[in-house]
Design a protein that fits this description.
By secondary structure, the chain is of the alpha/beta class. It contains 13 helices and 24 strands.
Length: 424
């Protein structure tokens, strides 16, 4: 098992390049297996564990994955003849649920073991299932395996009861190979939805309206390979913006799409932080003491839930009271107890965290309960007095590439250490 040891107190300064988006990449890999008999080459992939595990899963299914460089994968799915994804790897991440839509579209049949992912409250997949059923599939769950099959998939109109990223993408995947047109209403609008639609269209799909709340998918008879580059990671970029602001630093974050970051920019500016946007980079100049704000997480273009936890860390030392309301997940405040160990004054009441800013956090031994909790604790460690030790960093490695190298290049002091007597 590995830990991060962070010596706090350094301001972040300099330039940093953002990698490809995790939540786009983890949908593109399953989508790539839908190519009938040619290769999909995907570039600008983040070097994160979720992508590595998905590549392993594709190999387990019989596909070939050329991993000659750590940003590019070529996926040859000709050898995939099974529709069963039931290995231990499938349980390691949330996004393996995209194999359901991809294999249902490809084979008319999919069996996928229940996915894992961040433990941030109940994460049902009823809207995915509702979508598959509306397309004509039968769905049952046996021994923890979701089984979906259909003699034919027929396009239809599907209204999502909740705005769901996963359901929108999963239905889009299956509907690409349905007969006729499918319309997803109340669809999610996140940047990665658009990226997946663009990728599928490069494979020969016919998807219109991605990025709005109505997506139309005209089924096609075949999908072919393509070459594609993943969009920059909105959440990694936002994490660096928050880290720069937290340390009162001055960081230019390169390879971003500023439009995707507007909600974060707006909130940081409300805190008194200076944010300067350019074509494909954003400069964040922190202040000595930022102001507390109120914040509510919402589906895109609202403030992303995935940045709620990092924001809580910086607000714990902002001037005055902040109220952070988590409207997407019911248990995404596990990082709060850890921040309290570092001296933060935060009270969780239902879906809200009430934060009374203190002067300074103090370093402590803390545990990352999930990916973005880990990011929040890293930011807390950067601004704390003394040393912070973060355990369970495997969650962080699921979704941030070279995180300590990137932060250290900006002046942080972070070491990855092995815990004595423990195995990886
Ligand atoms: C791999 C990936 O892309 N993960 C992201 C994806 O997760 P994920 O796709 O799991 O998130 P969803 O957008 O589906 O979930 C949003 C909300 O809808 C609920 N819901 C969802 C599906 C469903 O069938 N029924 C239902 O009730 C969920 O419990 C949650 O409250 O979007 C989330 C919201 O932006 C992000 O936090 C995750 O980082
Ligand atoms: C919740 C997240 O990831 P996942 O859906 O993969 O668990 C996240 O990226 O913040």
């Amino acid at each position: 098992m590995e830990k991060f040891l962070i010596e706090g107190g350094n301001q972040l300064q300099g330039r940093i390049v953002i990698g490809g988006a995790k939540n786009a990449a983890v949908a593109l890999l399953p989508a790539a297996i839908m190519a009938d008999d040619s290769i999909c080459t995907i570039d600008n992939l983040p070097n994160i564990n979720d992508v590595k595990v998905l590549a392993e899963i594709i190999k387990e299914l019989g596909g070939k994955v050329d991993e000659s460089d750590n940003q590019t994968l070529s996926i040859d799915s000709k050898g995939i003849t099974t529709y069963k994804a039931i290995s231990e790897n499938v349980k390691k991440m949330r996004a393996s649920y995209y194999l359901l839509g991809a294999m249902l579209g490809k084979f008319g049949h999919a069996e996928v073991i229940y996915p894992g992912g961040c433990n941030i409250g109940v994460r049902p997949i009823d809207q995915h299932i509702k979508g598959f059923q509306a397309l004509g599939a039968k769905v049952k769950t046996e021994h923890g395996i979701i089984k979906v099959y259909a003699d034919r998939l027929v396009g239809t109109s599907i209204y999502l009861d909740v705005v769901s990223v996963g359901a929108t993408i999963n239905i889009m995947l299956a509907a690409c190979r349905a007969e006729g047109t499918t319309e997803i209403e109340n669809a999610a609008k996140e940047p990665h939805i658009v990226d997946v639609a663009n990728f599928l269209n490069s494979m020969g799909a016919n998807i219109r309206g991605a990025g709005t709340d109505v997506i139309k998918i005209k089924g096609v008879r075949e999908l072919k390979g393509c070459t594609y580059s993943v969009i920059p990671d909105q959440i990694e970029a936002g994490t660096f913006m928050i880290a720069a602001a937290a340390t009162g630093g001055d960081v230019t974050i390169e390879n971003v799409i500023p439009k995707h970051l507007e909600s974060i920019t707006a909130k940081l500016m409300e805190m008194g932080v200076e944010v300067l946007e350019d074509l494909d980079n954003i400069r964040v100049r922190g202040v000595k003491k930022s102001r507390g704000i109120n914040l509510k997480t919402l589906p895109y273009p609202g403030f992303p839930t995935d940045l709620q936890q990092p924001m809580t860390a910086v607000l714990s030392v902002a001037e005055g009271r902040s109220i952070v309301t988590e409207s997407i997940y019911e248990a995404r405040f596990k990082h709060v107890d850890e921040l309290k160990r570092m001296g933060a004054n935060i009270k969780v009441e239902g879906r809200a965290a009430i934060i009374d800013g203190i002067d300074r956090l103090s370093g402590a031994s803390v545990k990352a309960s999930d990916l973005r909790a880990g990011a929040a604790l890293m930011i807390a460690g950067l601004i704390a007095e003394g040393n912070t030790e973060i355990s369970d960093i495997k969650h962080i490695d699921r979704g941030y590439e070279y995180i300590e190298e990137k932060l250290n290049s900006l002046g942080a002091n972070i070491k990855r250490i092995k815990s004595e007597g423990e195995e990886d």
